[in-house]
Amino acid sequence: MEGTLTARDKVGVQDFVLLDEHTNESAFVDNLRKRFSENLIYTYIGTLLVSVNPYQELGIYNVNQMELYQGVNFFELPPHVYAIADNAYRLMCSELNNHFILISGESGAGKTEASKKILQYFAVTCPMTESLQVARDRLLLSNPVLEAFGNAKTPRNDNSSRFGKYMDIQFDFQGIPVGGHIISYLIEKSRVVHQNRGERNFHIFYQLLAGGEAERLAYLGLERDPLLYKYLSQGRCAKETSVNDKNNWKTVSDAFSAIDFTEADLENLFGIIASVLHLGNICFEEDKQGCATVPDTHEIKWVAKLLGVYPSVLLEALTHRKMEAKAEEVICPLTPELSVYARDAMAKAVYGRTFTWLVDKINSSLANKDFTKKTVIGLLDIYGFEVFDKNGFEQFCINYCNEKLQQLLVERTLKAEQAEYEVEGIEWEPIQYFNNKIICDLVEERHRGIISILDEECIRPGPATDLSFLEKLEEKVGKHAHFETRKLAGPRGRKRIGWMEFRLLHYAGEVTYCTNGFLAKNNDLLYRHLKEVLCRSRNGILRECFLVAELENRRRSPTVGTQFKNSLSSLLEILISKEPSYIRCIKPNEWKEPSKFDDCLVQHQIKYLGLMEHLRVRRAGFAYRRRYEHFLQRYKSLCPDTWPHWHGPPGEGVERLIKYIGYKPEEYKLGKTKIFIRFPRTLFATEDAFEFSKHQLVARIQATYKGCLGRRDYVKKRQAATRLEAHWRGALARKELKRRKWAVQIIRRFIKGFMHRDRPPCPDNEEFIVFVRKNYILNLRYHVPKNVLDKSWLKPPGILENASGLLRKMCMRNLVRKYCRGVTAERKALMQQKVVTSEIFRGKKEGYAESLNQAFADSRLDEGDINPKVLQLISSEKIQYGVPVIKYDRKGFKARPRQLILTQKAAYVVELAKIKQRIEYSMLKGVSTSGLSDRLLVIHVSPEDNRQKGDTILLCEHIFEAVTKLAMLVKKENFVNVVKGSLQFYISPGKEGTIVFHTGPEEQIYKDKNGQLTVEKCQHLLDKGHRRSNQVARPAEA
Ligand SMILES: Nc1ncnc2c1ncn2[C@@H]1O[C@H](COP(=O)(O)OP(=O)(O)O)[C@@H](O)[C@H]1O
Ligand SMILES: [Mg+2]
């Protein structure tokens, strides 16, 4: 039902119990139609399955479907015949009790198909051992054999079962199908000799003719054409295209070998089948006395041959009758009509009993020989209620059978329903249902029932006819509320009931039966004469069927009606001891067409199948009931107390749950083990809530699951990462180790090399030397001197001292070269002058170092500074240099400003326009200066130069420059003399003076007491050259 609830809006309701208008027949039909149009042929009424014949393959009987239904809660999935089968099977296994599935419905409604599906379901889904496969195969294969002999084509069904069948499937304690047993009911023997238009005889005749091997047919004296046989051609559809006799023959003959039929059995069996066909072709003629004769005994011979009797005996038995008069037997001839009757009776009897033999034979092959306890599931595939325009004895029996089954239903379902309420302790109002026991009694009551009356008519002496039987009925049961005849009915009823008819008000509706043939059919008379012949048959099967004991037994065998009554009551006994499941089959239309739904026809079947009644009872009390555990299991998610687990008793859980979702007291009742819900809407609301919560639950479960997956994934990744890291670290560590080992070696070699560095190259220091060399050279790059003055040099390691020295030299040379290339001509000249200065003064005179930085000028006098007269006087000589000087007199040492002008040839001391002194270079003896930082210089002239009075004492600011220029012009070696302390000079030829140099507190030049010129150099003024000059100049100015 749970599955039903989910799908209820899509295609009606899957369970009629949930139908809102449960008393409305058209709503019922509507629901069936709606579902049928969607090819949903199954619908439940509680646990009863309603099936509508689809007349087409729906693809719902495959192995997948079987597996789907296997072991699933009955209500979880859409209705299916497999669900019924599985439910019965599981209950049987768990409770170790017996079950039966009652399949009913009218001809063509799908009963046989349903029973086959169930059998297949068990064959496929039940556990199986190899040794028991044979039993399973036999169970499956018994079906085609039985169908061949017991089924025939009718207008309603091409494969109509013409007998009722109850089949027990036996299971061992493991639930393995191990055997079976079949009981057949009331095979329609009349079909052997007569078929209505559009009908056929039993399939086996046609199958034998169509599929039988040529030799076999020849042996049986048969031709292939069914039209040659009277028993096969009356229905005018012997060659039916919708039935494939040839193929079916193959199936049947395969099945025969599987279920233990010997070749002899088959020979006998087909001998009987063939003999029936030959019998049908025997023709009788009337002789002059009106007795029957057989003009052509050809067929007789064949029958005699096949049945193993003497032809003459057979012929006599067919045309004569043995009468017992007092103590002696009288043989009297039969009329042709009676001969035909006798012939047909023989055919029917032979076929009927052979069918019974066949069932027995199958049973012995299905029987399980071990005596362990078995449980069974019975399948009852029996004709449903039948109402035709003309209803005869067969319909009477069939409808009686259905009354009995309805009775069972009443007992088992309607009563059981009420019993359940009692067991569960639920208060409820008993509902009224029609108990058809009264009709059953009408038919079967001893001495008073219709069957008893019929039997009485059959055996009473005197001329009993069908009419007398009818009269007897009127007399004996005329007052019964469910019985009517034309005579008993009021004026209105008269028109509808014929003279020979009686009407029964069955539970499913009224049926009018025509009494014609009732007596004959009930008697089912086979003349004794014929019986004797058959008892003496050499055909093994017939010998088993017709026992001589029967002849000796003078008691009448029970009539067909009584036999049927007895077999039904034993069937009911069988059924009553078992747990029932019901399948009600409905035929949607009369034309065997798919997708056609005849409302009227269906409504009619619903009525006589008692479905409305069933539903009403199901619904009268409570629409839904479910064991607490199951209810809780499904809906527990609706209440926080019961979700996800309820640990208390399920009943309390359910109580908590329904209180939480707000059931009103009138909506439900709590039984001992079950909850009963009164209205479908209550359940729908619950289901809707469940549907809603399901999505949330699903989301939550999904989220949890995804979370779980995520975490699992994360943990996996983390582990992977850790492992990766570990490996990577390992790899790194190994790499590091290698590197360190390498480094240790290198360092070791380095140290070794270092220790042996001073040894001549050997393997121990070779590398070290290379390294040191390389290192030094590379390092040297950054420490190369940038200019010639930069004397720095990277200190070389011991072994490289030589090379370093060479390199240093090269470097210096290179620098010098570069420097030299960069020196201009003027600068070169200047530098040459400086070189000269250096040669003269370096290390000799204080102030030299400071003077180095001061560039020499070409001249300290412009042409403008020199008096033009002077210029004119020395115009013949080019002026090389001029500088202002102060001249000190040789005697008084008076200071006078003068200009010193140097030409190529001579030096001039000039006072304004007057050349005071001209000293030719050739006459120059030298120049003296002191080693101090004073700027005094004495130009010594040669005493031979008479033009000169004495040496010249000059004070020149640019002493280094001036002396250098002069020295260069003079071009004499050792020309300049740097003295220490004092120097001598000529005041005049032969007369010398002294100049004393010393340092003192003040810078001054003066004539000391001794008449010497004293040049005092102030120590602290030594480096302030230009200020000195000012101070020096002052006395002169003064
Ligand atoms: N479930 C089904 N699916 C398909 N066809 C079916 C089904 N049930 C019955 N039929 C068709 O209807 C025909 C008659 O069914 P059958 O079971 O022989 O009827 P019944 O035994 O009630 O007289 C079958 O031969 C088959 O063609
Ligand atoms: Mg059938």
Secondary structure blueprint with pairings:
Blueprint: H1 2-7, H2 25-37, E1 42-45, E2 48-52, H3 63-69, H4 81-95, E3 99-104, H5 111-125, H6 133-150, E4 151-152, E5 160-161, E6 164-171, E7 177-185, H7 190-193, H8 203-211, H9 214-220, H10 230-233, H11 245-258, H12 263-280, E8 285-286, E9 292-293, H13 298-307, H14 311-319, E10 320-325, E11 328-333, H15 336-366, E12 375-381, H16 393-424, H17 437-444, H18 450-459, H19 466-477, E13 483-485, H20 491-494, E14 501-506, E15 509-514, H21 518-523, H22 528-535, H23 540-545, H24 548-552, H25 560-576, E16 579-586, H26 599-608, H27 611-620, E17 624-627, H28 628-635, H29 650-661, E18 668-670, E19 674-677, H30 680-755, H31 763-780, H32 801-822, H33 825-841, H34 848-852, H35 868-873, E20 879-888, E21 895-903, E22 906-911, E23 914-920, E24 924-930, E25 936-941, E26 952-956, H36 959-970, E27 976-979, E28 982-988, E29 991-1000, E30 1004-1007, E31 1013-1018, H37 1025-1037
Helix pairs in contact: 2-26, 4-5, 5-6, 6-8, 6-11, 6-15, 8-11, 12-13, 12-15, 16-17, 16-25, 18-19, 28-29, 30-31, 33-36
Bound molecules: adenosine-5'-diphosphate and magnesium ion.
Adenosine-5'-diphosphate (ADP) binds at residues 53-58, 105, 107-113, 157-161, 585.
